[in-house]
Amino acid sequence: MSRPLLWQILLTLYCWFFFPHCALASSDSPSAGSATAQAHKILIVTSNQHTYGNTNLSAANHFEEIVIAYDVFRKHGYVVDVVSPQGGAIPLNYIDTANATQKAYLYDAQFMGLLKNTRQPRQLRASDYRAVYYSGGGSAMFGVADNREIQDIATAIYRNGGVVSAICHGTAGIVKLKNADGRSLLAGRKITGFPDMFEDTDADYYKTFPFSIDKEVGKQGGNFLYSKKWAANFYIADGNIITGQDPSATVSVAREVIKAIERNS
After folding, report:
1. Is the Cα dihedral 49, 52, 56, 59 positive or negative?
2. Is residue 28 a part of any domain in this protein?
3. Most buried pick, 21, 35, 152, 166, via CB within 10 A?
4. Residue 118's Cα: distance from chain center in Å?
5. What's the confidence (pLDDT) of residue 126?
6. pTM (2 d.p.)
């Protein structure tokens, strides 16, 4: 059994056995449904994909890119929902228990409940959210960009003056978003994400990707920029579209999201 798959199984069992009632921590709770909470909500987009394409290679959502952004959003007073194309539990990897924030949230029943019980798009109203944040990991390359319901939610948030943001491979999820006139949301914008420079383009996992993030952003009329230095905290805020290159930019992207929301309020 591969290490990533083992992590996924252990994490799922951990949540089930130690937090059997964590489903109660979803945004169906009265506090999350209040008018005040609805005015201060952010949506995190994740993927249900467990493998790279139709292979047996394990894929997952990047735990750090979810939890660190979630921590920033919550500390600024925002209610956070998590959505995936199918809803329910999502695969997780890249978990660093030496990191105090990540470790703390592994023992947080409410947070783990959100990941065990991600929302389905049809359960959400775009008008409830001030921003959408696409997390990364290999799973983000599959099932998100083509999901029309998530597309509709994200574009509605944007048209209502909200923020569209993404980190790392999460940028794959925003490449097919359109303006009201049918033009790409990325056209004429500076965008970053995980570049091919840091991918192993000859590897089997990469060959399953439906597209190259670099090239697809360019096809949509965007200007794809990136740092040639790994973990350089490289991010771009171009109006209400905020993107980060790799996990090192997660905090910066989340903070820029908050700034953009407050600037637009």
Report:
1. negative
2. no
3. 166
4. 12
5. 97
6. 0.88
Q: The domain containing residue 245 runs over which residues?
A: 3-19+36-264
Percent over 70 (pLDDT), the chain: 85
| pLDDT tens digits along 111-138 | 999 999 999 999 999 999 999 999 999 9
Report DSSP state, residue 265: -
Cβ distance 48 to 86 under 8 Å?
yes
**What's 243's DSSP letter?**
E
Residue at 9 is within a domain = yes
Where helices occur in the chain by DSSP H, the ranges are 3-18, 35-38, 63-75, 100-106, 109-116, 148-159, 204-207, 213-219, 250-264
What is 156-183 written as a DSSP string? HHHHTT-EEEEEGGGGGGGTT-B-TTS-
Of the candidates 101, 121, 120, the one whose C-alpha atom is nearest the C-alpha of residue 111 is 101
Two tokens at 99? 């990191």
Is residue 111 in a domain? yes
Percent over 90 (pLDDT), the chain: 84
Q: What's the structural domain count of the chain?
A: 1
